[in-house]
Specification:
Blueprint: E1 4-5, E2 10-13, H1 21-26, E3 31-34, H2 47-56, E4 60-63, H3 73-83, E5 90-93, H4 98-107, H5 114-123, H6 132-136, E6 148-155, H7 159-171, E7 177-180, E8 185-187, H8 192-196, E9 206-208, E10 218-220, E11 224-228, E12 233-236, E13 241-249, E14 254-255, H9 263-266, E15 272-273, H10 281-290, E16 294-300, H11 310-325, E17 331-337, H12 349-358, E18 362-365, E19 367-373, E20 378-383, E21 391-396, E22 399-401, E23 406-407, H13 410-413, E24 439-441, H14 454-472, E25 479-480, E26 485-492, E27 495-501, H15 523-540, E28 552-553
Parallel strand pairs: 2-5, 3-4, 3-5, 6-7, 6-13, 7-10, 13-24, 15-22, 16-17, 16-22, 17-18
Antiparallel strand pairs: 1-2, 8-9, 11-12, 12-13, 14-23, 19-20, 20-21, 25-28, 26-27
Length: 559
């Protein structure tokens, strides 16, 4: 017998026998519901046998037989009527447990978000994507096959999504394209480091989504609940169904603030801040200006995260401000990094270490933030050094800049598009999905081993657009992405170490070293970051102008 827990109150299992009842009782279950019709298998005990053993053990037993693969709307209603009167926790069973899990999913449809239902059943070992459309429809069988149809559907109106739409239209203006995104505001997130350093105003990093959607592209202002790739369909909240010929998935990632105990309750006060949120980046600069003495913590979670240099950028700009105003000698800077390296590409480390020394910052590797007590100004870290038993430490702070753990969005992680780690599973060169060849993905949500940066999306969008147009023409992929990413490391106000690299940490400088040597801090790189990159983003990248981002052709080996 294998019991699979879905919630604290409901579990499911494959077929049980009368001899399993004592174990079920010992596990704390108070009721059983059978969802398998009698006589379905030759080795199957009857419900009467199960019920008799259950009653003898003091358990309640109920019978709701469901034909395999035939969970009806009436079955779901009856399931709800039965379970509301049963004592909890309840164990449902059928041949494999799938029918019981399906009944629970459809019954919960009006109470829980679809991604939560898919995640709970997936964790128990049951894939409910096949009934996702019914769950999105409140547990009832929908009547429509699709509410709208487009040549290209793009999920996500961030940097990657809008740039891809613009690049597609530049190549084939007749395409019907829809962008699905529920947000009213589009953010230039690379600017938030500068907001936290007192260089930009937060308002400079935001524009309305409607003003940026390319002309001729339909903006569907809604959240995605699930994917049906075999039916070329995307299901939105409320069970609106949008179908496509080709799909681009670029919704970004999820900042998992809730993974750190106590963090959400104290963000934005008690000296706890983060440049990873638009509304908190100004608070970072406020704290930097106010701190005259004490300890400042800067945390970095396990990879992957977007802009892996951002946690230390905050540290450098803060250290520079304290250096300039004379407070640095009285401030203890501690960098708490879950990883074991300051930066993953070794060529940039020497320049960074000079600034670590300048600001007298202490580097603490293999330290993962697990809890925050904002009122007490204490942070708890798990220390897991190689070849050592994990330990736990608590550190006092006066200011703390937190970089949160980051995961793929819930609706991606539970979808058929995801790999085992929850990221969209693509070929790292063509960015085409490995299973569904009319789907592409770019930006932070896919699983290619590149740095998750805006600069990466700037190179990926033309690659995806080029390959989609080639596919429309009936050809094979023609463009490849080399893993390019850029991380302008703001080591002091007025100087930047411009890290540019591709797959495997290969250096990918955009300029000759006599113009800009990215391994050394330079004012030219700061000028690029402060003055040139924002207009390039708003006026070029998002409008399909591929300045220094032309797709690289796939080189065919000679026969």
């Amino acid at each position: 017998m294998e019991i699979k827990k879905i919630t604290d109150k409901v579990s499911v299992s494959p077929q049980i026998t009368a001899s399993d009842i004592s174990e079920i009782k010992e596990a704390g279950y108070r009721a059983i519901i059978c969802n398998r019709p009698d006589g379905e298998g030759s080795d199957q005990p009857s419900f009467e046998e199960i019920e008799k053993a259950a009653k003898k053990a003091g358990l309640v037993a109920a019978y709701l037989p469901v034909e395999t693969g035939m969970v009806t709307d009436e079955n779901v209603v009856e399931f709800g009527n039965i379970v509301k009167d049963l004592p909890r926790p309840v164990l449902g069973y059928c041949r494999s447990g799938t029918r019981s899990a399906t009944l629970w999913s459809l019954h919960e449809a009006q109470k829980r978000p679809l991604p939560e239902i898919l995640a709970a059943t997936k964790a128990a070992g049951y894939d409910m994507n096949g009934v996702a459309r019914r769950v999105a429809n409140g547990g009832k069988t929908p009547t429509q096959s699709g509410d709208a149809k487009f040549d290209i559907v793009i999920v996500g109106g961030g940097a990657g999504g809008i740039a891809t739409a613009s690049s597609l239209l530049a190549r084939k203006s007749s395409l019907s394209i829809a962008i699905i995104d529920p947000s009213d505001v589009h953010y230039y997130q690379p600017g938030w480091t500068m907001v936290g350093g007192g260089v930009f105003e937060a308002s400079e990093t935001a524009k309305t989504m409607g003003s940026l959607i390319p002309r001729g592209v339909k903006w569907i202002k809604a959240a995605v609940s699930a994917f049906e790739p075999k039916n070329n369909a995307v299901i939105l909240e409320g069970c609106t169904v949008v179908t496509y010929d080709r799909l681009v998935v670029s919704p970004g990632l999820k900042l998992d603030w809730g993974a750190i105990e106590g963090l959400e309750e104290t963000l934005g006060r008690n000296g706890v801040t983060s440049n990873y949120r638009y509304d908190l980046a100004p608070y970072t600069w406020q704290l930097v200006q106010e701190l005259k003495e004490g300890r400042a913590l800067f945390t970095q979670p396990p990879m992957p995260i977007k802009c892996a240099g951002a946690p230390q950028k905050a540290m450098y700009l803060s250290g520079d401000a304290w250096f300039r105003n004379g407070a640095l000698k009285d401030i203890d800077i501690q960098f708490m990094n879950a990883g074991g390296l300051l930066f993953g590409v070794k060529e940039y480390v020497p320049a960074l270490m000079k600034y670590v020394e300048k600001y007298d910052a202490t580097l603490n590797f293999f330290n993962t933030l697990t809890a925050v007590d904002g009122a007490a100004k204490k942070a708890t870290f798990k220390v897991a050094k190689p070849d050592s038993e994990p330990t736990e430490i608590t550190v006092d702070f006066d200011m703390m800049h937190v970089c949160p753990p980051q995961v793929a969005p819930d609706f991606i992680r539970v979808s058929p598009l995801a790999d085992v780690a929850g990221w969209v599973d693509v070929d790292q060169a063509t960015l085409r999905h490995k299973t569904f060849d009319n789907i592409w993905s770019l930006g932070d949500v896919m699983n290619a081993p590149n740095a998750k940066t805006m600069a990466a999306a700037r190179k990926q969008a033309p690659t995806v657009a080029e390959n989609i147009v080639a596919d429309i023409k009936g050809g094979s992929p023609v463009a490849q992405y080399d893993g390019y990413g850029s991380c302008p490391l703001t080591v002091e106000r007025g100087k930047i170490v411009m890290a540019e690299f591709g797959y495997g940490g290969a250096l990918k400088p955009s300029f000759p070293s006599f113009i800009l040597d990215g391994t050394k801090p330079s004012r030219a790189a700061w000028f690029l970051k402060e003055k040139l990159l924002p207009p390039i983003y708003w006026q070029a990248m998002l409008k399909g102008k591929e300045w220094m981002a032309k797709p690289e052709e796939i080189k065919v080996a000679a026969q």
